[in-house]
Amino acid sequence: MSTTVTSTESETRPSAAYKLRATAKWVEKPFWKRNPFEHLAAIDLASKKCYEVQPKNPNAPPAHSIWWERLWLSFAIPPPLIFHALWYYFVPETSYYHTWHPGAAYAFYAISFLIYTIVMVKHIHYYMDYYGTFDEDKRPRDYVPDMLVTRLVLSVVVYMLARTGGGLLLGGYRRNESPSLGHTISWFFLIKIAGWLIALDFFFYCYHRACHMVPFLWKVHSLHHCTKHPTPIQSILAGDIQEVIEIFLVPLAASLVVPLTTHEFWIAQCILIYIEATGHSGIRAYWPHCVLDEVLQPFGMELCIEDHDLHHRLGKSGMNYGKQTRIFDRIFGTISERVECVQK
Where are the domains of the chain? Predict the structure, then answer.
């Protein structure tokens, strides 16, 4: 099944309510007047163009090369694993520092995850500027509101620390084992990670759909929907209960179905945050899932950036509840048909 993209014209003008945006005066502050939380939140500031209404692009969204993204990920994800393996190889076994205590491994991979995330966000920002963003002729991307800057930064910190710790615990970190293909990383690790992502998407779909249907759960989830046009790091913005469910419980459930080693979990979490960040970027291109695209496309179950972008624009009415695939949206009839990226 081949994929093409088309563009459709909007026949209605956006309402005044649609144009309302939360106050974000922190963005206008000079660099030296921003507080530490605002400096950290500024990592997610894309080019000024992304926050201004743009003329309508008459052309269809281009199909972005997923192989180029796979190449980028293949360079961005392995460095910490390679460094870890080289350390064990070159530092003598007789040395006290030959193996890494779990605390040292935790600190190393947490810092590595932060660096990877910053580089990834800048990579995504480049394409937000290059391709433009969906719906930009009506409303551009939203800044993080003043009142949520601290909340966003704390959410990111919790996410980084929890996901790193989860990988060490769920993967059963052993200090005498270094990353190695065929040992701590299966030769079939991509198949395992694909299965893990699908299992995670099932549990996320169930929880996410319930959030949009049950009033109490919607109150928990509504903070994440404070923006209809998010940016990459706003994918992590959430309330306390949602953070517990998404950062801890959903990955735990997926890991019980498809167990991963510590080093496989590192690869999986890098792919996971990449998909979550691109899904909240609004990049105006047909940009499918870097792992699952070819497997799911023949069934119309593949995910692209527009799917989750539409989910945010729809708000509480929901649709497109999956964040890694459209498998369960297709099965349970909760797909919102794409507006600009159309599959034939």
Answer: 65-332
